[in-house]
Amino acid sequence: MSEDMEIALVSEPVRAPARRKTSSARTLTEIRSLARSHTRTALSVLVGIMRSDDATPAARVSAANAILDRGWGKAAQPIENSGDGVLELIHRIERIIVYPGSAGGGAAGRDA
């Protein structure tokens, strides 16, 4: 191969093969549908682990929590305010957005 041909081959842009355009929403829907089709089996496995005397206590608790979360939803998590005042700042921003015309950013009849 001559040197001119090598330069020409190197300088030409490399194109990736054309990909089929698919909707990411459609793909997510397909994945959810496939996962949901295995719900009974997955739940049976979790129940089996939860009831198994051979499973470690950690595995049994994890399976039990997964079952409860799916059946009843996850428990509400309280928001703890650290000493840095971040939660107060969030509440102040919220008051300013919700009640923009009030003095100090607070609502009428509400503590600012």
What does this structure look like?
With 112 residues, this protein is mostly helical. It contains five helices and no strands. It has helices spanning 3-11, 24-36, 39-51, 57-72, 86-98. Helix 3 crosses helix 4. The termini are far apart. The relative contact order is 0.05.
The ordered string of helix (H) and strand (E) elements is HHHHH
Report the mean per-residue pLDDT as an integer: 77
Number of E-state strands: 0
Overall geometry = flat
Our estimate of the beta-strand percent is under 5%
Characterize the main sheet: none
Helix fraction bin? 55-70%
Query: How many distinct helices?
Result: 5
- Rounded to an integer in angstroms, the radius of gyration calculated over CA atoms is 29 Å
SSE inventory with pairings:
Elements: H1 3-11, H2 24-36, H3 39-51, H4 57-72, H5 86-98
What labels would you give this structure?
about 110 residues; mainly alpha; 5 helices; flat; disordered C terminus
In a nutshell, what does this entry contain?
By secondary structure, the chain is mostly helical. It is built from five helices and no strands.
